[in-house]
Amino acid sequence: MASSNISYSNNIEPNINELKQACGSQDLATCFKFLFNSDIAEDYGFIMRWGDERNQLRSKVEKSEQTIKEARHRGPFNEKAVDGLRCLLETHHRDLDMLQLLNNLLDLIRGGIEEKGRHVKLMEFNEGSLGGLNAHAADFFRPSL
Description:
Blueprint: H1 2-12, H2 14-23, H3 28-74, H4 79-126, H5 135-141
Helix pairs in contact: 2-3, 3-4
């Protein structure tokens, strides 16, 4: 009968069981702590990769700004040069928008890292008592039959 309960649990909780296996613990609070710590490590990697992309884009934007300034001071343009400058300005504005989006994304990820850090501390604080949950919360998550 015990094996059918395990099989039933594997079928209805595949993510929890995978998490328990990866974590090496049956304690749900420990598993969640493991999950949050893993997410934090991934988020730091994401920040490093996208931070580099953002820095490269920032350099491109700065160079574009300088090119635009030089072109404006160069003086009388033919029609094709005016069109070229207009296109450069349009592209520059799009790059500025992308730079702002990347900055916002990186800020959002940093906030997520702080949030997950608080979650880890909560799991550490609660470790050992009902798998990290107080009695009321444990009843809430217990499936009704």
